[in-house]
Amino acid sequence: MKINSISGYTCYVRDLDKTAAFYEALGFRPGKRDGNTVTMYVNWFSVVFVSAPDEDKKAFKKEANLEPRGAGLYINIKVVELDEFYQAVLDKGMKPSSEPRDWPNGNREFVLRDPDGYKLVFFEKK
Questions:
Q1: What secondary structure letter does DSSP report for 14?
Q2: What per-residue confidence (pLDDT) applies to 61?
Q3: H/E/C letters for each residue in 71-89?
Q4: How far apart are CA 48 and CA 5, in angstroms?
Q5: 126 or 93, which is more confident?
Q6: Which residues lie closer than 8 Å to 68 by C-beta, 6 or more apart?
Q7: Sheet holding 101-102, edge to edge
Q8: What CATH architecture is 1-66?
């Protein structure tokens, strides 16, 4: 058994427009918008956001509305010059959950929650 790569993930969100604007402000590239989904990219990695209120598949409707979103999940995103990136986030009016901090594993990082509460960990390897 061998995993070749991870190409992306999918998240349910309350407001596609707000989510797309948030991720685009962080530097994600907008991709296809189709009905109740929007895809955002960093290089080849994709994140597909699905509108929870518009989920019409009965089997997925319950899961689409579970709270809290992404409990226990941290999405790690490597950046260049973390402190500059942190300042740019602040300059855009976003409110990180933490300030940049050095960790024993050699990472410097901070956490920012997206509009639905998903936790994004921006990090730089020191």
A1: S
A2: 82
A3: CCCEEEEECCCHHHHHHHH
A4: 17
A5: 93
A6: 117
A7: 74-78, 119-125, 107-113, 101-102
A8: Roll (3.10)
What gap in Å lies between CA 118 and CA 97, rounded to an integer?
11
Residues in the chain: 126
pTM: 0.90
First vs last C-alpha separation in the chain: 33
Distance in angstroms (rounded) separating the CA atoms of residues 54 and 15: 10
Question: What are the residue boundaries of the structural domains of the chain, listed by start?
Answer: 1-66, 69-126
DSSP string, 29-57: EEEEEETTEEEEEETTEEEEEEEGGG---
Which residue is associated with the tokens 């500059």?
Answer: 84
Q: How confident is the model at residue 117 (pLDDT cuts 50, 70, 90)?
A: very high
What gap in Å lies between CA 50 and CA 36, rounded to an integer?
6
- CATH class, domain 69-126, is alpha beta
CB atoms closer than 10 angstroms to residue 91: 8
Alpha carbon separation from 69 to 13, 17, 113 (Å, rounded): 9, 18, 10
The pLDDT value given to residue 65? 83
